[in-house]
Amino acid sequence: MRAHPSAAICLGRVTPTVPLSRPIYQLGVVKERAITGNQKPNAPASRRVDGETVADVGEFGVIDRATAGRRQPDTTLVGPGDDAALVRAADGRVAVSTDMLVEGRHFRLDWSTPEAVGRKAIAQNAADVAALGARPTAFVVALGCPSHTPATVLDELSDGIGCAAEELGAGVVGGDLVQAEHIVVSITVLGDLEGRAPVRRSAAQPGDVVAIAGQTGMSAAGLALLASVGRSRAVELYPELVAAHQVPTPPYDLAYAAARGGVHAMTDVSDGLLADLRHIADASGVQIVLHDSAVPIVSDDSAFIPPLLSDAAQFLDANPMTWMLTGGEDHAFAAAFDPSTPLPAGWRPIGTVRDGHGIVAPMHDTESGGWHSFQ
């Protein structure tokens, strides 16, 4: 396991290191900055000029500001500044994934700070390679924005991207910047399997135990609050839920623990628990059954629903189980395990795999909900 320093230096500010599975809302000032925007990154004053736009600074000026002072891990042989980066692949194989965030579709700057958007972009990419069993080693970042975008927006966005990458022991090794009608963040992550076999969606077997690591429904609740009462009121009432939507904190270490033994298939919960378990079921040619009698996540007993979700659902007159089963962007991990192997610490059983197809979840329509890019 890669060692992490006791503190990570991010463009002049110190971000205390915490376990990667720990929620962002426990990070003190990071929470405050991410959900309220009240604190700005303490970058050198020369980077911050009121009124400057991206057009004023220029493409290479923006890139220089984004990369200045960034640390690179030992796996980066050639970093930003050349026509291409060079990254060591000690395993001989490289896990690769790409995700894109589009302003107005995936984020709103009246609901999130630019730094929070950057951190979210890194988290959703890192969770994808973690679901394969790989640790992120490098990120490539492509940004698009209107020419009138304040330069400080991209400064803060790149702060979030760079710091989140460094906290994972990875580096931002290159990218591109272009003019666009809206802000677009497209990130590609490279990951190292460290000698392990990849964990595929397609290897679940009848008899496997289905388990989850992390919490679902938090991000969906935060989004519902932002849409209903706006950022200021939502942060006042439920800061943890707002932070969970703005900056998800996948339990990476639990995914790596699963990859080290006993797991047959795994995915991160980005589209919703039911939707992502359906991906495993379809890829593996099996049926996944969630058990209402043994599994808290599908029980109608309110004692099994996190109190914070239950309280927010009552406030919005919503169903917390809908958030937990169909809400996306928490980036928890769901997996199918060999029944003869004890579940790793931090994983809790929620169902079983059997012959058949699709998902069976008592008390819920398994065909509804989940994220769809073109709906």
Arithmetic mean pLDDT = 84
Order of helices and strands: EEHHHEEEHEHEEEHHHEHEHHEEE
Q: Give helix % range.
A: 25-40%
Q: Name the beta content range.
A: 15-25%
* Total count of strands: 14
The general outline is: globular
If you had to describe this structure to a student in words, what would you say it looks like?
The protein has 11 helices and 14 strands. Mean pLDDT is 84; it is low at 1-9, 11-48 and 370-375. The protein has helices at residues 29-36, 54-57, 59-67, 114-131, 151-167, 218-237, 239-246, 252-259, 273-284, 307-316, 320-326; strands at 7-10, 13-16, 76-78, 86-87, 95-102, 135-145, 171-179, 184-192, 209-213, 263-269, 287-290, 332-337, 348-354, 358-360. It has 2 domains: 7-192, PurM-like, N-terminal domain (60s Ribosomal Protein L30, Chain: A, 2-Layer Sandwich); 201-360, Alpha-Beta Complex (Phosphoribosyl-aminoimidazole Synthetase, Chain A, domain 2). The longest helix has 20 residues, at 218-237. The strands form 4 sheets. A 6-stranded mixed sheet has the order 10-12-9-13-11-14, with helices on both faces. A 4-stranded mixed sheet has the order 5-8-6-7. It is globular and about 60 Å long. A hairpin with a 7-residue loop joins strand 3 and strand 4. Helix 6 crosses helix 10 (307-316). The two termini are 40 Å apart. The protein is of the alpha+beta class.
Structural key phrases:
375 residues, alpha+beta, 60s Ribosomal Protein L30, Chain: A, Phosphoribosyl-aminoimidazole Synthetase, Chain A, domain 2, 2 domains, 4-stranded mixed beta sheet, 11 helices, disordered N terminus, disordered C terminus
